[in-house]
Amino acid sequence: MPNNLKPSVNRKYLILISGILWSGVGILLNYIASKWLNHFQQWQIVFTYFVGIIMGSIIAVFGFSKLAHKNANRIMKYPEKVCIFAFQRWQMYILIVIMMSLGFFMRTSNLIPKYLLAPVYVSIGLALFASSFVYYKKLL
């Protein structure tokens, strides 16, 4: 593809885009989980947040924040102007489609009860949101 047709931006915008996407998806996952809480008993709500906060913190510290650091460092090694879609490696787009499809399947099928699925959504949502600040710090 000719360079003049490639939508290119300053690499710092890629850092910002990554942070906003991670924050947004984290908020979205927690919003979806919160809609299920209306149908839960009190112990299920406590279970959801207890497990979600503990697991989300662990995932953020030992998983997603390391991945965010790796991504941000990779982006900062790019030339000053780079394709706007380069905020993720192309292999990650495949993983994202798989994860979104799996999430949609689990959410719409009744194979997994919502009170077991909600802590997973809270965990991943919290981890993504917390780890998104790695990107914001890179902009400072």
What do these coordinates show?
- By secondary structure, the protein is mostly helical.
- The chain has one domain.
- Strands 1-2 form a two-stranded antiparallel sheet.
- It is elongated.
- The relative contact order is 0.25.
Report the C-alpha radius of gyration, rounded.
17 Å
List unreliable stretches of 5+ residues.
Answer: none
Order of helices and strands: EHHEHH
Class computed from helices, strands and strand pairing? mainly alpha
Total beta-strand segments: 2
List the strand order in the largest sheet: 1-2
The best one-word shape is: elongated
| Number of separate domains | 1
Residue share in β-strands: under 5%
- The helix tally amounts to 4
Mean pLDDT: 91
Distance between the termini: 33 Å
Largest sheet descriptor: 2 strands, antiparallel
Helix content: over 70%
SSE inventory with pairings:
Blueprint: E1 8-10, H1 11-36, H2 42-76, E2 81-83, H3 90-108, H4 114-139
Antiparallel strand pairs: 1-2
Helix pairs in contact: 1-4, 2-4
Quick structural summary:
By secondary structure, the chain is mainly alpha-helical. Helices cover 76% and strands 4% of the residues. The protein has helices at 11-36, 42-76, 90-108, 114-139, and strands at 8-10, 81-83.
Tag the structure with descriptive keywords.
two-stranded antiparallel ribbon; mainly alpha; 4 helices; single chain; 140 residues
